[in-house]
Amino acid sequence: MASAEPIILRFPQPAPIDEEPIVITGIGIAASIGSTREQVWQGIQQGICNIRRTTSEDGVGQLTQPCAMIDWLEGDSTSLKSVRLSEHVADEALADADIPWSEIDRSRFACSISAQFGDIGYVYQSAAERDKAPLPGQHRWWDEFLPCSASTIVARRHNLQGPLLCHTTACASGLVSTIAAARMLQSNQADFALCGASDAVTELVYSAFNRMGVLSSGPTAGNACRPFDTTRSGFVIGEGAAMMVLERKSTAIARGARIYAELAAMQTLCQAHHVTGLDDAAETLTELIRRLVHKAHWQSQGPQYINAHGTGTEQNDRSELLAIRSALGRQADEVVISSNKAVLGHLINAAGSIELALTALALRDGFAPPTMHLDSPERIGNLDCLPNAGITAKLDRALKLSLAFGGHLVGIALRGCDDLAHRRSSLPLSPNALVRTSGQQRLRSVASKQASVA
């Protein structure tokens, strides 16, 4: 008896490009503070920070700078760490999206995972060690330095046969990978897309940033990263990864999926200023924020929450806050802003992905998380960077910004799902979540109105 033909799910034809909403239906996250999406999100709510000084056992050379290292990953602490993290969060994101694998066409499942910094552990190995056959779950030594290793290995692991992309745009890579995935869906090249990024600390990159003089040296490792604080001294490198499953909203509804958020607008611009420096006037970043607000149709109300790039360097922090103030005008007094890098460190290529995923969780649960270690805030207008405590509110409009070496400026606007039947149910906050008191929130509201009148 001949075997039955596989059932292929047929989804509604998409609207014209740029008109069909793209939604997030699956999320996987890993960082120094947790190995799963909800562990990391609970840690963010509580302001947990696992930044510590590295040692010789971390395989990052002789430097002893503060770093947000992942210590929970099994196996070799250094070899192919970023690739293994990609596999870990991809598994979680795909399971979370509840993909009906037996009913879909895998040639219409795209994969857009950003490049990772290559490891150099193989350089120290003998020829015999490098030629040794890998054990199950391991990879060949040449995967260590190929920037596209994570994207190709994850696609092969899950038999994703659709378009395969790998972008490298420095700290904006995570958001660029998301935009590229969304474009593939809008142009009907795919029905689903896995997108995201991962990064791990390597000796070469660690040393390069240290030589550049941008890393914070402490003095206390736990609070070395201090975004938007006048006592900041640089950023802290971190390790981690995040992946998201994207699909057209019509596809998600047709299969009964649960939606975290909708990509309301996407924008990239080039600052065309300097390979590592930022324009002090922040004119291009200001324009990027204005375009995002316009594309999302938020001109009359503006965003409620901005997940900032917020590295903890003076140039980044000041130019980012100045751009927010310039772009939003009086609306800037009503928005709340925070940076996750204070506790997660700067995940470089993966920063945009993990912070966008956390922004989606902020919309799901109605909680704008705090900026930790912010004791002496930078004063630019009446901007509120949520020092050391977040706020609870009904959140439906959020921006995620990434500013990268090379002049890459990228932003994504997220909107809460308006279809309550398919919207992800909110989860209770951690009992230890750092939440601003209602009295503090009222004081801020009054201050904002007074500033607006003035």
Number of helices: 12
For the sheet with most strands, the description reads: 10 strands, mixed
The backbone outline, from C-alpha atoms, is globular
Mind telling me the C-alpha Rg?
21 Å
CATH topology of the largest domain, what is it called?
A: Peroxisomal Thiolase, Chain A, domain 1
Number of discrete domains = 2
CATH homologous superfamily title of the largest domain: Thiolase/Chalcone synthase
Using the coordinates above, name the CATH class of the largest domain. Answer: Alpha Beta
Q: Are there runs of 5+ residues with pLDDT below 50, and where?
A: 445-454
Structural class: alpha/beta
Beta-strand proportion: 15-25%
* Ends apart, CA distance between termini: 82 Å
Number of strands: 15
Order of helices and strands: EHEEHEHHEHEHEEHEHEHEHHEEEEH
As a percent range, the share of helical residues equals 25-40%
Lateral strand order in the biggest sheet: 5-4-6-8-1-9-15-14-10-11
How confident overall, as mean pLDDT? 87
